[in-house]
Amino acid sequence: MNRPILMWNVGIWLLVAATEVLSAEVPAAVLGAQAARVAVVAAASDSTLAVFGPDGGGGGSGVIISPDGYALTNFHVTAPSGAAMKCGMNDGKLYDAVLVGVDPTGDVALIKLFGRDDFPAATLGDSDKVRAGDWVYVIGNPFLLATDFVPSVSYGIISGVHRYQYPAGTLLEYTDCLQTDAAINPGNSGGPLFDGRGTLIGINGRGSFEKRGRVNVGVGYAISINQIKNFLGYLRSGRIVDHATLGAVVASDEEGRVVVSDILENSDAYRRGLRLDDEVVKLAGRPIRSVNALKNVLGTLPRLWRVPLVYRRDGEMYEVLVRLGGVHGAGELAEKISGKPGAPPRRPDGRRPKKDQKTPPPKHPNKSIDKLKKAPAVVKQHYEQKKGFANYYFNRRHIQRLADAVRRGWDPHEQKDSWVLTGDIQSDVGEGPMRIVLGPKVGSAELPFYQGRADFTDELSEVLDPPATGGLLLALHLWQRLFLGGVDDFGKVEYIGTVPLHGHAHQVDLLIGMHAGVEVHFMFDPDSGQLLALEMFPDDGVDPCEIYFGDYREVDGLSLPHRFEVLYAMRRYGVFRISSFAFKEAEKE
Amino acid sequence: MNLSSRFFTLVCLLFAVLSPPEAVMRSAMAMGKLPSFASSIDRVQPKLVKIYGAGGFRGLEAYQSGFLISSEGHVLTVWSYVLDTDAPTVTLNDGRRFDAEILGVDPWLEIAILKIDEENLPFFQLSQSLEADVGTRVLAFSNLFSVATGDEPTSVQRGVVSAVPYLKARKGVFQTQFNGRVYVTDALTNNPGAAGGALTTIDGTLLGMLGKELRNRQDNTWLNYALPIAALRDATAAIIAGEPQRPREEVAIPVRHPVDLTGLGVVLVPDVIDSTPPYIDSVRDISSAAEAGLRKDDLILFVGDTLVQSIKDVKSRCEKFERGQLLPLLIRRGEELVTIELRTLPPGEAIR
User: DSSP H helical segments within chain B, as ranges?
Assistant: First the structure.
C-alpha cells in the first residue's frame, strides 16, 4: 500500500470517528432543534431585504409581505431616500423599489419592489399571541455587513410584550411593541422579527441605547405585526397616515383606575357620553388597566377608525362606538416629516460610516423630484408627487378602482338625474309607505311622520332635514351625486384605506369626498366594490347621518340597494325598504 | 426517616427536577420545535418588584429591581443611592404600589431588605435556591430601563453562566464592595435599573441577584453578573432578624474544586512540626509551578491577600480558591519579594 492511499484511509477513518463522536455526544433532540432552526432561518432569510437609498447610500432592513412585492420597513429607513430605493435580497440580486405609504408616528413604511410577481413573502403572524419567553429570530443587515445581501441572524427570546416606549424626539412613538434580547443593532431597522416557526411577528426598529453607545445591550424593540396589520390598508393608500386619539386624556387615580382627566368637547367620545372622572375600562376590546395600556391600544389604531369603548360611571358600565380623531392636524404630519432626514446607522465603534464606504448621508433628503430624475423608469411610472401624500400614484389607483365599481352599468350620457324611490319605512316612531324624490337641486320626502323638502342650493351644512336624521336628504343627494358625476365630478376625493365597519367581519374601503364643505365617508366592499355605507358630516364636530345599504338588486342593468338603514347619533331613525326606483330627466325649472 | 422513604423522596425529587419544563423541552426539541420559557416566566414574574426612589438626574436612574423573599413582603434588592429616601416605592407585579420601609442593609454585600405591609405574597424561598455551574442555562428578570410600569411584567433575558470567578473590588477597575464569587452571564443584564433583579434557572428556580452596574474603567467593558444567593443568605436572615451587621471575611459560596498545590507541581518541605514554614522543596518539570517561575527554596508568604505562616495555613488558604483561575502568591526568594501568579487547572482538566 503506498503512502497517499494509507493517508486517505487514515483520513477517512478519522472523519468517520469524528462523526461518530459528534453524534454520540450531541443528543438527537438538540440536533433536531438545530435542524429546525436552520430550516426556519433559510426560509425567513428569503423574504428579508437590505434596503438602500437610490444611489446605494443609507441602509436598513425590510421584509417582503406579498408575492407582488409589497414590503415593510421603518419610516426612518426610507426617510432619507425619498421615493426611490434599492433592495438587496438573499439571492444576491438587487431590485428597484418605490415608496408607497408611510406612518411616521409608528415608524413604518410600505414599499413596493419591481421585477417579479413571485417574491418570497413572509407569513404574517398574530403578535397578540406572543408571550415573554418565546424564541425569536432577528434577521436583517446590522452595521450594513452584508455586501452580498445575505442577511445576518440573531436569536433570542421575547423579553416583554405590549411595551410602551415614549416618543424619541418628536414623532416616533413605539406603542404596544415587542421587546427582545435578540441583538438589534443599527442597520437592523425595518427588518423582520420572526417567531420560532418563522412567522412574521414584528418589525425591528429601536433599542434602548444609553451609555454603551449605539450597539445592542440586550434590549431591542419591534413594532408588533398586529399594529401594522391595522395600518396596512392605510399604508397601501399612498398617504402619510396618522394615528388615533380618543380626544381625552387619562390618568391613574389612587386606586390605580384609569380615569378621564381631560376631554375635548368636540370629540366623538364626548358626544358618546364620556365625561371627566369616568373610568376607561376597555378600548377596541382590550382591557385598560394602566395609562400605558390606553396609549398602547390607541397607538395601534389608525385615525378615523370607529371602535368600541367601555367606560364606567357610578358603578354602571356603558358601551359605545367611538370615532377616533387624528393625533396630528391636517397637513401637520407632512410638514413635520419634510426636511428631517434620518441619520445613517453608525458603525460598531460608534462613528458614522466614512464616505469611502459608499454610505454618505444624502444631501437633499426629501427633494424627491431631484432624485427622481435619475430614478429607474419603473419607479418613475409608479410615482406621483402630491402634497400631503407619500406617493399619490397609489391613491389615484385606488380611487379609480372604486370609481369604476360605483359607475358599473351606468351610462353617463343619460341625463336621468331625477330619482323617485318608493317603498315603506319601519321605525320606532311609526311605519308606513314612503316616497323620496331626489332631484339635482331639491329633494323631498313623504314619510308617515314627516313631509318636507330640502333645497340643495342653500348652504349645505344647514340642510339637515328630516329632523333627527342628521341630514338624510342631503346624504342621499350626495350619494346620488357620486352616481351621476362619478368620483371625478364629486369634489375633492381621497382614498383613506381600509377600516372596520360595524357588523362586517372584514375591513372595508374608505373613500372620503368633500363637496361644498360637507364631508362624506363612503365605505365599499373591497371585493365587490359595492357601497356598504355612507356617513355624511355636515360640519366639524357633529354626528354624521349614517346610511347602511343592503339588499342589492339589478334595476335597468344597475346594481342598486333596496334597503337603507338610517342612524344618527347612535340612534336608529328607521329602515327604508325600496320597492321601486324610477329614473327620469329633471324638469327644467 | 428510613431508607426506603428516603429513596422514595429522592425519586420524587428527581421527577420534579426532570419533569416539565426539562422533559417537555426535550420532547418538544425532539420534534424540532423550540420550547418557550413562557410558563416558567409566568411563575417567576409575580415574585418580582419594581423599586422607585432617589435619583433621576445626571445618568442616575431613580429605579431598580427587587424580588420578594417572604410572603409578608420582605424584598431583597441592591443597596444603592436609589434607596437614599425615606420610603422607596415598591410596585408589585399586579400593579399595586406600596411605600416600603428599609429594614436594613449589608454594606459589605451591598444588599438591602425592604419591607412592605402586605401578606400572602408569592416569593422566592432563599433556602431553596440552587447553585449554578458554568454552562447552566439561565433567565434574568429585571426592570431594566424601567421599561415596565404598573402591572406590566419585568423584562426577561436568557443566557448561560459563562464563568463563576471571584469578583474583587479593585479601585479604578470594578468598584464594588462585594468580595466573592459571582455568576457571569452572557445575557446582557448590566443595564440601568436591572440591579436587584433575579437570575433563575430556565425552570424558574432562584440562583442569584443581578448586581449593580459595573464598568471596568480600564477597558470600558461592562460586567453582566449576579451575586449567588448562597452568599447572601446569612446576611439576609440576620437583617430580617434585626441582628447588627459586621464584615464577613468569607462570603463566597462553598468551593467545589479547591486548588491543590501538589497537583500544580509544587512539593513543599515535609510538614514535621506544628507550624512548618512553607518552603518549596522542589518544583516538578513541565508543571504550572515551573511555568509560573517557582523555584526550590522559595518561601510562600501570602496566598491571595492572606499571610500564611505554616504549611497548614497554605493548604487551608488554597482550599478557599476554586480551580480554574490564577492563584496569586507572594514569595520570599533570598532577600527578594516576588509576586507569582500560578495558573490553576480548571476542574476536569488532567493534572500534568
Answer: 3-18, 22-30, 38-44, 233-241, 288-292, 311-318
Read off the C-alpha cell for B291: 511555568
Max Cα–Cα distance, chain B, nearest Å: 69
Q: Are A55 and A93 in contact (CB under 8 A)?
A: no
B22 or A352: whose pLDDT is higher? B22
Cell triple for residue B199? 437570575
Q: Classify residue A506 as left (phi > 0), alpha (psi -120 to 50) or beta.
A: beta
**Of residues A157, A179, A217, nearest to B37 (C-beta):** A157
Per-residue pLDDT, B76: 97
In the DSSP assignment, the letter for residue A327 is S
- pLDDT tens digits, one per residue of B327-351: 889 888 887 888 888 888 776 654 4
Closest to A386 measured CA to CA, from A409, A369, A408:
A369
Cell numbers at A391, concatenated: 406617493
Nearest by CB to B191, from A163, A165, A218: name it.
A218
Dihedral over Cα of A181, A183, A186, A192: its sign = negative
Report ipTM for this prediction.
Answer: 0.82
Q: What is the mean pLDDT of residues B30-40?
A: 75
A–B CB contacts, 8 A cutoff, strictly below = 117
The span from the first CA to the last CA of chain B, in angstroms, equals 45
Q: How many CB atoms lie within 10 A of CB A523?
A: 25
User: Rounded to an integer, what distance in angstroms lies between the CA atom of residue A61 and that of residue A52?
Assistant: 8
Q: How far is CA A391 from the centre of its chain?
A: 15
Domain B36-254 has CATH 3.20.20.120: no
Is residue A281 a contact partner of residue A311, using CB atoms and an 8 Å limit? yes
Identify the three-state secondary structure at position A10. Answer: helix
At residue A255, what is the residue type? Answer: E
Q: Which residues of chain B make contact with A210, given a CB cutoff of 8 A?
A: 145, 191-192
Residue ranges covered by each domain of chain A: 3-34, 127-234, 244-326, 410-584
- Lookup result for grid cell 416600603: B100
Superfamily of domain B262-343: PDZ domain (2.30.42.10)
Cβ(B220)–Cβ(B285) below 8 Å:
no
> Do A422 and A575 contact (CB within 8 A), yes or no?
no
pLDDT in tens, A390-422: 999 999 999 999 988 887 766 666 667 889 999
Does A107 qualify as catalytic in the annotation?
Answer: yes
Tell me which residue of A192, A329, A219, A313 sits closest to A259, measured CA to CA: A313
* Residue linked to cell 464577613: B248
Kindly report the CATH class assigned to A244-326: mainly beta
Which residue stretches of chain A have pLDDT < 70?
Answer: 1-24, 167-172, 209-214, 339-371, 409-415, 586-589
**B133: DSSP letter:** -
Q: Given this structure, which CATH class describes domain A410-584?
A: mainly beta
Buried b (16+ CB within 10 A) or exposed e, B221-241: ebbbbbbbbbbbeebbebbbe
DSSP state of B45: G
- Determine, for residues B33 and A160 on separate chains, whether the beta-carbon distance falls below 8 Å: no
Domain boundaries of chain B, sorted by first residue: 1-34, 36-254, 262-343
Selected catalytic residue, list A159, A189, A237, A418: A189
Is B59 an interface residue toward A (CB < 8 Å)? Answer: yes
- Write phi, then psi, for B182 (nearest 5 degrees): -130, 160
> Pick the residue with more confidence: B148 or A21?
B148
Query: Helix, strand or coil for residue A541?
Result: coil
Nearest to A503 by CA among A532, A543, A537: A532
pLDDT in tens, B269-317: 998 887 888 999 999 988 889 989 999 999 998 888 777 888 988 988 8
Contact across the interface for A218 and B149, Cβ inside 8 Å = no
Check: CATH 2.40.10.10 for A127-234? yes
Q: Name the residue among A181, A208, A252 with its Cβ closest to that of B158.
A: A181
